[in-house]
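Please fill in the sequence for the structure shown.

STRUCTURE ENCODING:
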């Protein structure tokens, strides 16, 4: 009989992904009806399954094991015996049949309990040897029970477990690919050694996690600890999280023992050092960060078990500078993993999960896959790119908090007896986005360079790549806090950090009718989008400012910032006085805003913009 032709281009993870799309009910097997329903997918990815159905299906069903074996067993040209994945010892089709027979549905859930394990231990051990010892390992949810998904993953090996974990992580596709490659490399090296090959890949597993805040570095560190424990690199999945203050002491002779104590605590697992670049902070003669780095480097030469696997995490630029300044440390690190920023679609999904996790929901037009594009557009249109980049997932927590405050305010005005709502509306989301101020400029935390503020010239739309211009005379600098304190008082009068302050820069008159029309349109649009959360501040001069103020609805929401003793040149708005003269007023103006809009500005506008630019 002619042997079936088998395709050799799929890896095991790819096959598992294809299988999930066909076995949509997670039965562990598919029927001919399932195959026909997914025939287009199979024709494109695995046409041999259709061509050879009769020879590989058993009792009109194709098990997941048979599907994988069809492609990966020796003799297929895919892998030699030393490199192919460990064959599964559990028939998932048989396990699913047993699971359905012995596990009843209780409270709407079908989960294997300890009592089921005790009563049916002999049957379970026959199908799944070792299940009793591995029960706790399979309890991913921490419920002391095993759902079918958890039991299937436990029986299927690390590949399936890793893909299951990836399904629960939003975005980060580059990182996931890097982790798949790491897992594949470690597993294959172990198999090469077991096959008698003298493999010497160093045995070092220390890592760099580089990415902006809010991209899930700590969450992934826990996953990596579990992964390395599952594949036998470390003794336990312990993760010890520290920052600089847990390693560095204040006095001579204390840092080494303090760092070593942390190393001893984490030696069976992973030591996660967040904001690791702070160990190279400039602290003068009393800073002992370098001593901590040297203590860590000494431990990094030890194998796992005698010392922990170490993960150094932080901003990409700062981590690069930190490693360049510590060449001995860098030589001991084998892997670098990149945490890219979330895009707006990712943020929309995170926001929805954040709301659901807190017991709330989004209005139907923003919910689920159908509403995700709309929600992503709202986030993109109403938040600043810098805020998204430097907050990432944390941005969603802020949006949810502010949205809930809007909902609470609305609910508090309801008549007694009216049903209380947990639904966040589009207006709540838009208003919340408008309340999030730009992130402050970030100064380098590493000797010799590092992070930058990433600022752009206010009102210009510049990229911020050039050196910022010098601040005008009167702008605050170290040791001169009069202007800074005055700006803080103005900001407090405007509602503090809870308000979004939009500063309008302009000249006394328009040079173009088109510019006037544009300013009026921007004023009306911002007024409609930001609502009561915004504070519009002008320079107290007619012209650009007056045109903007007249199209912002209620004049009480427009403030005119004037030097002390001067009066406003037009009646629209409320006067605020700060600064001894125009120059100080301009410096204060450049310190208070979250957003700056300029049109046809003169020298005064340039000075205000420079202050805002230096501020980031």
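FILLED IN BY: designer on duty
SEQUENCE:
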């Amino acid at each position: 009989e002619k042997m079936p032709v088998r395709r050799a281009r799929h890896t095991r993870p790819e096959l598992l992904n294809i299988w999930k799309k066909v076995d949509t009910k997670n039965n562990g097997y598919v029927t001919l009806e399932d195959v026909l329903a997914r025939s287009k997918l199979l024709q494109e990815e695995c046409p041999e399954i259709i061509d050879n159905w009769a020879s590989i299906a058993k009792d009109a069903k194709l098990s997941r094991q048979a599907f994988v074996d069809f492609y990966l067993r020796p003799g297929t040209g895919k892998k030699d015996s030393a490199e192919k994945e460990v064959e599964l010892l559990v028939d998932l089709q048989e396990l699913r049949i047993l699971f359905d027979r012995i596990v009843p549905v209780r409270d709407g859930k079908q989960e294997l309990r300890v009592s089921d394990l005790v009563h049916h231990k002999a049957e379970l051990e026959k199908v799944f040897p070792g299940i009793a010892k591995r029960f706790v390992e399979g309890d991913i949810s921490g419920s002391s029970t095993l759902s079918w998904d958890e039991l299937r993953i436990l029986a299927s090996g690390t590949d399936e477990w890793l893909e299951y974990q990836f399904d629960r992580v939003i975005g980060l596709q580059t990182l996931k690919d890097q982790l798949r490659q790491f897992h594949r490399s470690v597993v294959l090296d172990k198999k090469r050694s077991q096959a008698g090959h003298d493999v010497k890949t160093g045995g070092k597993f220390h890592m760099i996690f580089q990415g902006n805040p809010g991209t899930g570095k700590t969450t992934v560190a826990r996953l990596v600890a579990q992964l390395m424990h599952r594949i036998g690199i470390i003794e336990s999945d312990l993760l010890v999280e520290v920052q600089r203050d847990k390693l560095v002491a204040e006095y001579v002779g204390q840092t080494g023992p303090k760092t070593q104590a942390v190393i001893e605590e984490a030696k069976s697992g992973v030591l996660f050092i967040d904001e690791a670049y702070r160990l190279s902070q400039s602290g003068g003669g009393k800073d002992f960060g370098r001593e901590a780095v040297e203590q860590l480097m000494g431990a990094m030469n030890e194998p796992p078990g005698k010392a922990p696997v170490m993960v150094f995490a932080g901003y990409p630029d700062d981590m690069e500078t930190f490693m360049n300044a510590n060449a001995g440390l860098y030589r001991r690190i084998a892997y670098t993993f990149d945490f890219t920023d979330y895009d707006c679609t990712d943020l929309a999904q995170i926001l929805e999960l954040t709301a659901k996790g807190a017991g709330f929901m989004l209005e139907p037009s923003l919910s689920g896959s159908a509403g995700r594009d709309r929600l992503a557009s709202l986030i993109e249109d109403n938040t600043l790119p810098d805020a998204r980049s430097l907050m990432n997932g944390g941005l969603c927590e802020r949006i949810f908090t502010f949205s809930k405050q809007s909902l609470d305010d609305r609910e508090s005005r309801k008549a007694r007896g009216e049903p209380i709502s947990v639904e966040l509306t589009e207006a709540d989301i838009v208003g919340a986005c408008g309340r999030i101020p730009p992130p402050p400029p970030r100064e380098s935390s590493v000797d010799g360079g590092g992070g930058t503020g990433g600022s752009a010239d206010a009102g210009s739309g510049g990229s911020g790549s050039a050196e910022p211009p010098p601040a005008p005379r009167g702008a605050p600098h170290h040791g001169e806090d009069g202007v800074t304190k005055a700006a803080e008082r103005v900001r407090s009068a405007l509602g503090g950090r809870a308000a979004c302050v939009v500063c309008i820069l302009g000249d006394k008159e328009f040079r173009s009718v088109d510019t006037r029309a544009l300013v009026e349109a921007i004023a009306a649009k911002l007024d409609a989008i930001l609502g009561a959360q915004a504070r519009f501040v002008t320079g107290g001069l007619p012209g650009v400012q007056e045109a903007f103020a007249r199209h912002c609805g209620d004049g009480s929401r427009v403030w005119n910032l004037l030097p002390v003793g001067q009066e406003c040149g037009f009646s629209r708005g409320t006067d605020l006085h700060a600064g001894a003269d125009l120059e100080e007023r301009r410096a204060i103006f450049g310190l208070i805003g979250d957003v700056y809009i300029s049109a046809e500005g003169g020298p005064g506008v340039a000075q205000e913009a420079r202050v805002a630019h230096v501020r980031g």
